[in-house]
Amino acid sequence: MRKKFSNWKKWQKTTFPKELMGNSWCTQISEAWTYSGNMNFVVQKRVFNCKLGIIEHITIQKISRKNILSGNLFDSIEPTYADKLNIRKIIEKENHDIIEVFPKESTLVDAANLYHLWVLPEDYQFPFSIEYPEKITYEESGYFYDIKFGVKELKTDYGKMVTLLIKSKDGTRIPWKSKQEIKDDLIGKENTAIEIIPKNVSSMMEGECYMIGLPTKFQLPFGLSEEKEQMC
Does residue 230 surpass a pLDDT of 60? Predict the structure, then answer.
């Protein structure tokens, strides 16, 4: 994995004084890491407490050297799984599950090219079991790629849970926005879904993922909207 970031020493860490922090999430950043190379990274972290425990919110910007030289500083590229796994090493959270969220359409915040990860408490377990599809059940063309799907529905004490196995036929990485569209179509626009990067995993396939449509009675007590922020 270290080959992806050829020089670990290029990572620079910055810590921000607590007295400078404000109330909105973007002013609560406590630490940041930067990396300069063919691809440049800015990784930021804020920490807050909610009913799930202590959560770390990680933002990632990945900008090519070409974009930096041309002044396109906000033209961020979506990080790969390899990037995310290496960043988890940098922030020293390899023993934690990390989730990526596909929110309800009514709470979707997509105003900047930032990619968000949420680090769960080390011992946290969801209050329901998660089972994954074991086989592909149908195929779909669209979402910018040809996609194969496996679908599994389960009843839980919190309501119905839908889990998707999503595979691109050619192994091409499926972008976050495409996954959000798939979530809207197959799980529901006003349902929240997550993708888990499990603890201690050292590699993941770019062309497939498991998306968990959370039961309606289980709500994540964090997010980017003002309503969610007030719950933390």
Answer: no
What is the 3-state composition of the chain as percent helix, strand, coil, each rounded to the nearest 5?
20, 35, 45
Say if residue 113 is in the same domain as residue 13.
Answer: yes
Q: Is the pLDDT of residue 74 over 60?
A: no
- In the chain, beta strands by DSSP E: 12-15, 31-35, 39-50, 53-64, 98-102, 115-119, 138-142, 145-156, 159-168, 193-197, 208-213
Tokens standing for residue 154: 């389960």
Cα gap 173→155, rounded to integer Å: 30
**Number of structural domains in the chain:** 2
> Range of 166's domain?
138-231
pTM above 0.90, yes or no: no
